[in-house]
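Notes from the 1:1 (GR / supervisor)

We went over the backlog. Supervisor wanted to see one worked example end to end before approving the batch request, so GR pasted a single chain during the call. The sequence is below; no edits were made to it. Supervisor asked that the structure be written out right there so they could see what the output format looks like.
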Amino acid sequence: MVALTDGADRSPFSGVRGPSSTNGNNNYHYKNQYLEQPRPVRIIVIGAGLSGIAAVKIFKERFAGEPVELVIYEKNNDVAGTWLENRYPGCSCDVPAHAYTFSWEGNPLWSRAYVGAVELFEYFKGRAVAYGVDEFVRLQHRVVGCDWDDQQGKWFVKVEDLSSETTFVDSTEVVINACGFLK
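Structure output shown during the call:
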């Protein structure tokens, strides 16, 4: 502790003293914690297509042992997004399939250059199983609204449970929009 003439404690571990912001406004309060100290954080991912599946792998690698919670809301009854939904005749990848994989885990066993929807679904469903997506995903849950609350510093996510036909509000610090754009 550094003794100052005004008698204030200026220890580097005593937290912030005085006004909580540079303009003297006391509406914002700093947490009494050191930089990069782990704190509980909740992440909601909207959609369990390719980005939602990848989010689980990255989440497990990056946040293992940290106080971080992940939940994925998926409107369908399974994962893999567009490759679950689109099964019209001739539906296939419009780029060579060898380029249409996760960068960290290719698939040298594609049946042809431009593989069909079923084969793509099986690949991405297999990755979802391998990464443990099922422990984070809530199937048949459609996100119908998302609002930021400045006062609480959180997102409030309105979710429709399609199986029970009920609606509830969940809250989180982080929202990842992985719902895709193809229907």
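Supervisor's comment: DSSP finds three helices and seven strands in the chain.
Batch request approved.
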